[in-house]
Structure prediction request, 584 residues.
Amino acid sequence: MAGDLRSLARAATAIENQTAAGRELSATLFPNTGRAVIIGITGAPGAGKSTLVDQMIAMMRTAGKSVGVIAVDPSSPFTRGAILGDRIRMQRHHADAGVFVRSMATRGKLGGLARGTLEMALLLDAAGRDYVIVETVGVGQDEVDIARLADVTVVVLVPNMGDEVQAIKAGIMEIADVFAINKADLPGAERLEQELRAMQSIAPVCRVVSTDGTGVGDLIQVIRDVYESHGPRSRSVESWSLRLTEMLRDQLLESLPAQAIEQHAERVAEKMEDPYSALAALVCLVKEKVIE
Amino acid sequence: MAGDLRSLARAATAIENQTAAGRELSATLFPNTGRAVIIGITGAPGAGKSTLVDQMIAMMRTAGKSVGVIAVDPSSPFTRGAILGDRIRMQRHHADAGVFVRSMATRGKLGGLARGTLEMALLLDAAGRDYVIVETVGVGQDEVDIARLADVTVVVLVPNMGDEVQAIKAGIMEIADVFAINKADLPGAERLEQELRAMQSIAPVCRVVSTDGTGVGDLIQVIRDVYESHGPRSRSVESWSLRLTEMLRDQLLESLPAQAIEQHAERVAEKMEDPYSALAALVCLVKEKVIE
Prediction:
């Protein structure tokens, strides 16, 4: 909470590894959360999300704000560290204590990524970061769930990329609070903006060129405006209902032995067992584990 | 199993109401399942799914096949019965014992619809139906889960409806085994077909005009071809793993008192409780219920 980066890094590791100490820390820190603006940045691979995040960091720092970044996108340069087993921060911000970057490269078979990301966001919030940016690639239900935990969700699109292909990705368009058209200096930007407006979404549309920073200041202002009008959605009862439901599901299913579901599925597929008996057996297994 | 419609209707009600007798019946009937071809029909509201299903039924009956229909789509005329509290079958097939229609109009807050639909499909399979058609509207995760339980999933699209709007619906495009372009006599059909092919999906594209039956025979043949090449996917180990996971989640969460999650969410949002303590309390509640 004093802002020490090494302590923060150690805390992040404890939380990511879901150790008992990590959970205790999360619980202890919880009362100190509630000040950060959590921004979700999502979109298809190749939309330039990381470059945009990089520019946003630079502008937030210029304004004297501290930033925490959680990179869940496996295609992001931010996650390279995690993939190499060596946590790195972007070169550009490496010497800046006001920027803390954490990548989340692992995901459990039965979920858990959304939960881990939430705990990390709460840690960075408690550590006094003004902004917490969560970067995800918008391709699956996990990613949609993660984007939902933000106060403001920005969907990044680029012109001429095949709007259908971008839109198809798991209903991510529906959760946009703000659309950012990146590479807005390309010819198709106008058409893309018209298409987005034709969707009759109330989400504002911003044009940016993340390689040179054009429009990024305006985007941050729009994000702030949306935050002011919505309030801290990430801390609403509705949001917590959703999260607690997910956490509970994960917790209950994680307690199962790894192969239990598949073994029963094999038996059911071979008609050696009916699905209701399999379900009863699995409930018993959860019960045993929950009691332990 | 002798094909008596009244018995079938009673069995369907017992299963839908999730009575103990219904579950016992499901378990007893399970060994008799495995012969029906389960076809999922999904798409945006207004795509003409119900009219298409109606034409498919007529052609299947002409070919001497028996049909069961499960209508999950709340906008379908098939579900009107359920909404009115009075189960009706489509007028056209009313006198035909070879057609059994069941609508599923209710859904639990924490899921359960996918599971109920599965049990209904297994009942119709055990009752000797050659085809079981499951009609859903492709707008949410529930619907995607339901479509996934089919052997062959048909996504119905119409020209000029705003492809983005159709595609946005919760990643439903990704689960298509077959695309049906309905109202294919409209001008934009060619363009829609090109767009679908440009997605590089391997799913075949069929053009139909469901109001007069054009192309519906071909569509059924394509569905059969896909079924022959995939095999009965609904009965695979992978499919059962997915279903057992969902059934287990539903079962565990259903055991919670209705307001439990929301009450804890309120306490967490007000910072009277941290999320990890709330989670532990909820796990305890599940444990108590599971033991009962």
In short: Strands of chain B lie at 37-43, 67-71, 99-103, 131-137, 152-157, 178-181, 205-207.
